[in-house]
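BUG-617 | component: ligand-complex export | severity: low

The export step for adenosine-5'-triphosphate jobs runs without errors, but we want the raw record kept on the ticket for reference. Input record follows.
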Amino acid sequence: MFVKPEDWKPTPGIAIEGTALEVVKSTSSLSVLAGPGAGKTELLAQRATYLLNTGLCPNPKRILAVAFKADAARNLQERVGLRCDAQEARRFESLTLHAFAKRILDQFREALPEPLRPSPDYKIIFPNRDFWAEFQAEQVGDHPDIHAFNPTQFGTLVQGGVPDFNAVELTARDRLRHLWWKTALAHKPSQISFDMMMLLAMHIVQTQPLVQKAIAGTYTYVFLDEFQDVTRQQYDLIRRIFKETPSVLTAVGDTNQAIMGWAGALPDIFSTFGEDFGAENRKLLFNYRSNSKIVALINDLSGLLTDEPPVPTESARKDDPPPDALEGWVFKTRDAEGAGISNFIKASLEENPELRPHDFVILTRLYANQLEDRLLLHFVSSGIRLRNEARQIGPLAIQDIVKDPVFLFLTALLKMAYGVRDGSPFQVCRDTIASVEGLDLSTDRGAARSLRLVQDLVDFTIKVTKEKTPADFDIAQLISVALPDDRRERLTRVYADYRNRAYLEAVIEACAAFYNESADGAPDWRTLIGNLEGRDAVKIMTIHKSKGLEYHTVIFVEFNDDAFWKNADDVNVFFVALSRARERVRFTLALDSKGFANVERFLTKLQESGVNFKEVV
Ligand SMILES: Nc1ncnc2c1ncn2[C@@H]1O[C@H](COP(=O)(O)OP(=O)(O)OP(=O)(O)O)[C@@H](O)[C@H]1O
């Protein structure tokens, strides 16, 4: 039964007090600004739990959480899944904005006027420069003015808005836009890009007030996570649906970590949101991740980010930070840097038996592959596994494979078969099966059928793997039963990630290749699962991909002019890297790089903040 709001308690181990508790229980729209490690994701998970546990979001009303990246959306869904019972968690939908737009389009496609309506089996395309150039070349005979635009300009022009097929007078630009939309929609099946999907979803809610009201009426509460990264087009869709409706919106973000500026993120998004939704602003001032020395450095560096005086945050941790929490290392050569890093990790692992290789991350802004080449031999001779998360296997980098729905599904099956519980494998299997089979988990029939299908697959997995080592097993055998042809076809419709069948096949192949790599030398199934998930390996990762993650020790390399070119988002990138650390950060400089002119202000600031740069030989 429902918990009374005044009796509700946060999940054990999670401290929610003061402003955070006010946000959790708020009945009006709010924007929440918080620094790294302030528990933004956890705050939303707790708010969802509160609203569902207390019945303030009563059945059949739902909570919509919109994140701007697939990882963030999944992370939040998982946390709510762990904090609420299954019945409640079903009314929490964590989606990327693209997935939300796709849902609107799929549900209300018929509401579009015929000339704008894609075929029901439309495919999502990802047009790049070459794609536009090819289209222009195909059409230039009938439309000689098409080359007035270079391919990128052409793509921007035609995807800049929905064409008005009723317009009588058309400019040259209108004609080109019409040409593209007509061709793309008439294609069999229709081809639409993410930008077109957003525009079509927007067109539906703009022209169909009943649809707009129905969507807003479904979601009593709306969460906007990582709001600093929202673009104008994305925000417009949210505003159009929810402005002046009773839905309560909570937007959470961190302007310091805004690294999507190049993708069109709105710099003043929080004040715009405040005006549109009458949302007051709250600030969270604790950092639950990093020790006090790292938090002090984060505070010092915040001054680089804004002209306004930054609001200092405080570490919520009471333990003493290690004396070597922050250090800068200067190496003569990059080779010496590789040796120095692997020696440091080896020594740390020997000194502290609680540390494991996966507690370390080596972060670089760019060139992860070259870095791997330089480091690998040193790590091999130290006997430490190194995994380059940016290494590409087929169409995906490892860091994307491990978040891919197909990979998660197959790994969850192996986990269920071998009793590995972390990462809620049952939920992953059941939800994947339910979505590809079109089963509604809120009905008894849908829930029972999903359960049956999951059980059959787990039994099959046990049967075919039990007498074998991972290296002797042919993963294709499991893939063909878990993902037969008809399920693959449905996957391409259900998941916006899978652009088309050929892409999905390439993803499946990449998952199989990654499985084979990880199985090599794994004596048993639990080790294989660990290898797949990157346990017991030091990771190399690009800073962009490290957002939302945390590590005991962060080693920040390539801090030089090869990787930093004085871009507008340099400071934010730097900030993201630094704030991933719980206990220690190392900044490493190699003197045989291109130099340090572009990072000079960071180096000065670091030294002013007491980070000692010492030569390591
Ligand atoms: N209220 C809390 N009480 C105790 N621990 C918390 C609380 N909130 C978060 N944490 C812990 O602090 C760490 C950071 O939390 P979380 O990932 O939610 O922060 P975030 O603000 O989303 O981080 P970032 O934006 O830097 O990635 C996690 O280890 C989380 O478990």
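Assignee comment: Attached the raw record above. Residues 14-16, 34, 36-42, 254, 257, 288-289, 548, 550, 579 surround adenosine-5'-triphosphate (CB under 6 Å).
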